[in-house]
Amino acid sequence: MSKDFTRFVCALTTFVLVSSLPTTGQEVASPDKGNPSETRERRVIQIAPNDQVPTVRAIAPIGGGNVFFLNHRGQIGVAKFSPGLSQIGWEFYSEVKLNALPFLAVGPGYSILSASPMELTQAFDTDQDVELDFFQAVVREWPTRSEGVTITAGPVADSHGRVLYALSPHSLKAGEPKKARLMAWIPSAGKSIPVTESELLIESFALRRDGLLATRLSMPDYADGFFLSLTELPAPESPSEKGSPTSAAAPPAPPLLPFTLPSLILPAELTKRDRPVSPAFLEEDGVEKLILTCPESRHLIEIVPEKAGGVWQGSVLLRGVAPKPIYALVEMETGRLLGGGDAGFLPLAEDPSVYRITSLTLADDGIVLEFSKPVDRFEAVKAENYSVKAIALGGGETSIDVEPVIDAGGRTVALKSKSVEPGHVLRVVCQNVPSEDGGKLLHSSVFRTIHAR
Amino acid sequence: MGILGSVNLCAETPPATPAAPKPSVVGVVPDSVKLDLSRRDLKNFLTDKDALVSYPSGGSGPSELRDVFTLGSVDTRYAVFWDPLACRLIGILDLEAPPESIPLQAPSSPSAADTTEKVTSGDGKPTTASPYLFKAEGGFPLSKTSGASDQAQYFGFRIVKGVPEFLYRCGSLLVEERIWLDHGGTVMKQRFFVKQATHGLKIAVPVNWAGRVAASSGTWTGALLTVPQEAAAEIILTFPLSPTPTSAPVAP
């Protein structure tokens, strides 16, 4: 099927396709955006089938070790895993190739939701023969659609039965500044309502069970990093609240939409300038983390979100380097991370042999670094092996002198220093801090955005 | 989860051909082909002003046609395009024909092998050949039907025996439109199943297809098919894509 389809697509791209299909290294579809070929010969490129493993672009867990997934052609499949995340098997759930964004959500009535830039689509297996056969366009209309506003990310299901998707920046009234909006489609009402607004386009997002929204915002002109926003979404108003005597007498003013502001900067230095995608929340050792993947550099970025003074901030560090490019991430169950890419699915358990910085926190008298292995005390105690800078969010940077103190276990190093003021990104570089057994740090830098203390 | 109750996921290695093919149109119509269905963004190839009215930029036409359904098969040289925004068949492309921009060196006489559309200039001389056998023209094809409106609203699609069936509303009409390739991919069939067609149906095809489309019932007046009420529930149009003889329409 793969081979046949690719032959057909190669012929088709000669003429009309605008967007090339994302291809693997095996496929050499060369879409002609300009003038079609002048040859009469039908273009056919012979390739080897590559569907021995699924080419994963999005994963939606459905319990019991099962997931739905979306492949690079927009086909939906199903895969099953053992409790240890070993893949047991997979198969297509639909051979229809949707023009889908790299997201997939499980909807009501055992449905699967996907989105193209122009449509939120709900698919069903109505005759229960293990193949999707009915694709309903549940959202095709929104303000300013005719002016080029499109869906940029989603769908993501929330814990209230709603399905979230993002619209590109637009103005609802003439003269109003353009804002991207995260919309919630409410299946029971068959309508969508906005839940957050943002000045920047929303490239991808993830939602924690408690409503914490992590949003990757697009700022193409900024080359030094990538913006990530953390916003708490309020729970939707319940029907009983709507019907309260107060609301009957005088409808309360609608609550203000939370505005999505950039909370954290993911430095390009940590991602190797690769765009981080597919954010996924992960609870590990009682700590709630956010993981993003950089498919080209194979870097996995770890963020530990923290709320201080009513503002979200946190540390940003390199969690690992995946053996293969990872395009999709999901927490299968608490603490178990599954990735997916052109090489199929990949369990992404922490490698205990990797020596890395696992945390950067602030103390009253300085900075605290945690390491995955005991440090080489001889080197780690030297101040010159650390470079600490406070980079002002408004521009400018200050070097900070530190005095390292190693704790008894050797995994924690306190860098005694003056207090870092809010409004800065703290950058700590451990130039020469090997592990006790001589191992080199996975990445010498770690960052923390400080909005409040 | 109940939906996965019957999924066979025990194999250590997935099969090269992932799932056994469902009973498809092949089993019903011997010469029909297994369709490949995808949704893609296409360069706008439409030129007819009235056909472009459905699109946001009006008569000038958009640069792209978004999320268009593309039907094709490795077994056939034709690709068929159906647009959910306009809710209509918008094109049939011959993948083996030369591209649209190549001027003809000399007028060529029609031959059995020549399936490309000839566009003539004012003096009757062919100027360009189009690889598109079919391009949407005129208003919405059912717009002359009583109860129809000019703007149809797409609802979704379903797969019936391997064939896509597009669902949309047009005024008071509820339309199920099925498209498939038949006779080894040399014929395209278009089936309309219309609810609420209490005064019959009127279906328009592009003028250059007048006289070449066969209908399961009704009478043609040029490029307009009129179907009486008693036959209006289901109509099958047959578009010969190559000169291969066609047979009577058969529903998949």
Q: Judging from the principal axes of the Cα atoms, what is the shape of chain A?
A: globular
Q: How much of the residues of chain A is beta strand, in percent?
A: 35-45%
Number of DSSP helical runs of chain A: 5
CATH architecture title of the largest domain in chain A: 6 Propeller
Order of helices and strands of chain B: EEEEEEEEEEEEEEEE
The amount of beta strand of chain B, in percent, is 35-45%
Write down how many β-strands of chain B occur, each being a DSSP E stretch of 2 or more residues.
16
Greatest contact between two chains: A-B, 68 and 58 residues
Stretches of chain A where pLDDT is under 50 for at least 5 consecutive residues are: 19-50, 243-248
Shape of chain B: globular
Work out the radius of gyration of chain B.
19 Å
Q: Can you describe what's shown?
A:
The complex is a heterodimer of chains A (453) and B (252). Chain A has helices spanning 2-13, 239-242, 245-249, 268-271, 377-380, and strands spanning 56-63, 66-71, 76-81, 87-92, 105-107, 111-116, 119-124, 134-139, 151-157, 163-170, 179-186, 191-198, 202-207, 212-217, 225-232, 259-260, 264-267, 277-284, 287-294, 299-308, 311-321, 328-333, 336-341, 344-347, 357-363, 366-371, 386-392, 397-400, 403-406, 412-416, 424-430, 445-450. Chain A has 453 residues and is mostly beta strands. In chain A, a hairpin with a 4-residue loop joins strand 19 and strand 20. Chain A is globular. Mean pLDDT of chain A is 85; it is low at 19-50 and 243-248. Chain B has 252 residues and is mainly β. Chain B has a domain at 36-94 and 134-240. Helix content of chain B is 0%, strand content 39%. Chain B has no helices and 16 strands. Chain B has strands at 36-43, 64-72, 78-83, 88-94, 117-120, 126-130, 132-135, 153-160, 163-170, 173-182, 187-195, 201-204, 214-215, 219-221, 224-227, 234-240. The chains are: A mainly beta (453), B mainly beta (252). The interface between A and B is large, with 68 and 58 residues. Strand 8 of chain A pairs antiparallel with strand 8 of chain B, so a sheet runs across the interface.
